[in-house]
Design a protein that fits this description.
This protein has about 100 residues and is mainly beta. It folds into 2 domains: about 1-50, no CATH class; about 55-85, no CATH class. It has 1 helix and 6 strands. It has one helix at about 5-10, and strands at about 15, 25-35, 40-50, 55-60, 80-85, 90. The chain has a 4-stranded mixed sheet with strand order 3-2-1-6, with no helix packed on it.
Length: about 100
């Protein structure tokens, strides 16, 4: 019998160390799909996402109300910063590769 609960805590985490030739932090575990066959065999498909920018997102500087700070006299008028939405990492040794 297959139990997948151990994988749920790893969804949304990046690789903590180099893994399968990918730099640490560049691969995100996005989940898995399990198909149960009639013969009692489980087919498991793991979902991963690679990003050369390590999944960073650009976000504008915001004021105390959460609105983007715009200064039309400045160049550029909006300050943009990199943010890591997937801060947690994990050991990818749980993957069967």
């Amino acid at each position: 019998m297959f139990t997948g609960g151990q994988y749920l805590s790893r969804v949304g985490k990046r690789n903590a160390a180099n893994w399968q030739g990918f730099n640490a932090g560049s691969v995100l575990f996005t989940g898995m799909n399990v198909n149960h066959t009639r013969d009692g065999i489980n087919e498991v498909e793991y979902s991963l996402a690679w990003d050369k920018f390590y999944h960073l997102r650009q976000v504008p500087e915001r004021d105390e109300n959460g609105d983007p700070v715009v200064d039309e006299t400045a160049t550029p008028p909006i300050n943009v910063y990199w943010k890591q939405p997937f801060k947690q990492t994990t050991d990818f040794s749980f993957l069967p590769m």
